[in-house]
Specification:
Structural class: mainly alpha
Number of strands: 0
Number of helices: 9
Helix content: over 70%
CATH topology of one domain: Tetracycline Repressor, domain 2
CATH architecture of one domain: Orthogonal Bundle
Distance between the termini: 63 Å
CATH class of one domain: Mainly Alpha
CATH superfamily of one domain: Tetracycline Repressor, domain 2
Strand content: under 5%
Length: 220
C-alpha cells in the first residue's frame, strides 16, 4: 500500500471514530441530563446508544474519561444553543437579554431530554472533589462570569445603572431565576415557570435602569 493510500485509510478510520464519538456523546448528554453523571457508565450507555461496550471503552477508556468527555460535549452544545447566537447582539444589555431568552428556550425546548444539562451535573458533583468536579466548576464559572461581564458592559455603556454590588446581585439573580424555572418545569411538567422567570428577569432589568423597548423578548 502506498503512503497516500495508507493515509487515506487512516483518515477514514479517524473520521468514523470521530463520528462514533459524537453520536455516543449525544446519547451520553441526554442520559446525564436525566440520571446525572453518577448514573453514567459504559454499560448503561451501551444499552442506551446501541454501541458495544468494547467500542465505547475504546473511545473513552474508563468511566471518568467518559464523564469528562460528556461534560465537554454538554458544554459545547450549551455554547452552540445559548451563547453563540447571543453574540450576534451588541455587547451589554442586548446580549444579556438574548442570553436570558436563549437560556429559557434551551430548557423549555428540551435541548437535553432532562432539561438543563448543567443543573443535573452540578447537583451530582458540587461536593465531590476530583477532575469531573473541576470540569463542571470551570464550565459554570465561565458561564456565570460571562453573564456578569455582559451586565458590567451594560453598566459601562449606560444601558443599566448599578454599582458593583448591584452588578453582582443582578448577575446572580438572573441565572437563579432560570435555574428555578428549569427545576420547577421538570418537577411539575409545566411551561408556566418559564413565563414567570421571564417576567422576573424583565422586572429586575427594569429596576436596574433598562429601557422597556430593550426587553421585548422577555415579555412572554
Amino acid at each position: 500500500m502506498s503512503d497516500a493510500s495508507a493515509e487515506g485509510v487512516l483518515d477514514g478510520r479517524r473520521a468514523r471514530g470521530d463520528a462514533s464519538r459524537r453520536a455516543v456523546l449525544r446519547h451520553a448528554t441526554d442520559l446525564v441530563s436525566v440520571e446525572g453523571l453518577d448514573g453514567l457508565s459504559i454499560g448503561r450507555l451501551a444499552a442506551r446508544s446501541g454501541y458495544g461496550k468494547s467500542s465505547i471503552a475504546g473511545l473513552f477508556h474508563n468511566k471518568e474519561g467518559l464523564q469528562l468527555a460528556t461534560v465537554t460535549a454538554g458544554r459545547a452544545i450549551f455554547m452552540d444553543v445559548v451563547v453563540e447566537p447571543a453574540r450576534q447582539h451588541e455587547r451589554g444589555l442586548p446580549r444579556l437579554v438574548a442570553l436570558m431568552r436563549n437560556l429559557l428556550d434551551y430548557s423549555r425546548d428540551r435541548v437535553f431530554e432532562g432539561g438543563c444539562f448543567f443543573a443535573a451535573v452540578s447537583a451530582d458533583y458540587d461536593s465531590k472533589p476530583g477532575p469531573v468536579r473541576e470540569a463542571v466548576r470551570t464550565a459554570m464559572h465561565d458561564w456565570y462570569g460571562y453573564v456578569e461581564a455582559q451586565t458590567r458592559a451594560a453598566v459601562d455603556s449606560g444601558q443599566l445603572s448599578l454599582d458593583d454590588d448591584g452588578i453582582e446581585l443582578l448577575s446572580f439573580s438572573l441565572p437563579a431565576l432560570y435555574e428555578q424555572a428549569n427545576a420547577r418545569s421538570l418537577l411539575w411538567g409545566s411551561q408556566r415557570p418559564y413565563v414567570v422567570a421571564a417576567r422576573g428577569m424583565r422586572e429586575l432589568l427594569l429596576r436596574a435602569g433598562a429601557a422597556d423597548a430593550a426587553l421585548r423578548s422577555l415579555e412572554s
